[in-house]
């Protein structure tokens, strides 16, 4: 019986430990780096409302489904999907859904570690007052010089990967749980301190107005597609992380209730990050739609021109590093769990092997910004023209593997897995809440994910 399965890796000590861990997985660079700048590029408040609607329709139902599958299988995503497919009377080839998630998480961590290394480096640069009274050109020059130095990028990539694998090697209760119990409260505390600082800038109300006062004239079809895509990606869906974390969830914990708390916490962090960043941007006469450079170029300049900016800038990059760290341990956990289950390894051996493999793959990203910056191997295809190895890895994972993984999870949960099994695992009875979840995952969510996927790969363009 599925309810008698136990994970050989252990389980979270409580529902709250799982909420912290899954929130840590979901809260990452996407919340603190990407959400503010795409909000800035798409007009502020109206985009936030569309994003929240997409979270409710896309993110929440798929996260429930992924946690449900994980707890039902109690194994790595690969073995979970094989077991549940056989149990449902279907082909064991569904294990390839698990493989896709594991490989996606591995590849994402390979470049995520490099970018997280930037955050580590900027902790020390900001603390040393490197950006004090520096001009915009000066900040840009510092960043570009940093990217052009493969030795620096390699050093920080190595440091971050070691930090990640040290946690994963210690197991569920001794590593993952202890880490998130430290990282997540620390992240929330730093965010609140920075929020207090943002309130003192004199532009806090302007920041709130930009973030929460909707101007629907700024919203177009492209903005809606971006909101749909980010709602899916921000919750770490389709990469095996939430599924493997769900496999450690105590049986008596409510999946719907815990998912709700995770979604609320993840969304709150993104919104508070916006409440921190936009007042700083406005106080310094900067552009809120500055794009991806907002964090590593625009904000350092803002901190460099503010009283106490070195202190609060350092705190900001510590916050960014904490968020990246809590996410990174979940990205590699599915692969480590699979090695332990299938190759008779202990966690230390599995962590060392996967850590080295991921570190080596990360060299492709490190060199994409310097030694291989001009290496664009797929220029013969118009869609990939000018894309570096890092760009291609990002496109493969974020635009192809994750949406397909999320779509397959939705299909498996309601079209393959038996109704009785999903109702039993969700423990929601057969009332309105279960029927609404099933309707969303069966019909609405797959269509939304397909639209996101087709737009991401350039097959549809609704902006025109």
Question: What do these coordinates show?
Answer:
The chain is mostly helical. The chain has a single domain, classed as Amino acid/polyamine transporter I (Up-down Bundle), CATH 1.20.1740. Helices cover 73% and strands 0% of the residues. It is built from 18 helices and no strands. α3 crosses α4, α3 packs across α18 and α12 packs across α13. The model has no long low-confidence stretch (mean pLDDT 91).
In short:
The chain contains 18 helices and no strands. With 464 residues, it is mostly helical.
Share of residues in helices:
over 70%
Examine the coordinates and then state which fold CATH places here, giving the name of the CATH topology.
Answer: Amino acid/polyamine transporter I
Distance between the termini: 53 Å
Characterize the biggest β-sheet: none
Mean pLDDT across every amino acid position: 91
Low-pLDDT segments, ≥5 res: none
Number of alpha- plus pi-helical segments: 18
| SS-derived structural category | mainly alpha
Tertiary shape: globular
* CATH class placement: Mainly Alpha
Indicate the radius of gyration in whole angstroms: 21 Å
The assigned CATH architecture is Up-down Bundle
Strand content: under 5%
- Domain tally: 1
Q: Compute the number of strand runs.
A: 0
Which H/E pattern describes the elements? HHHHHHHHHHHHHHHHHH
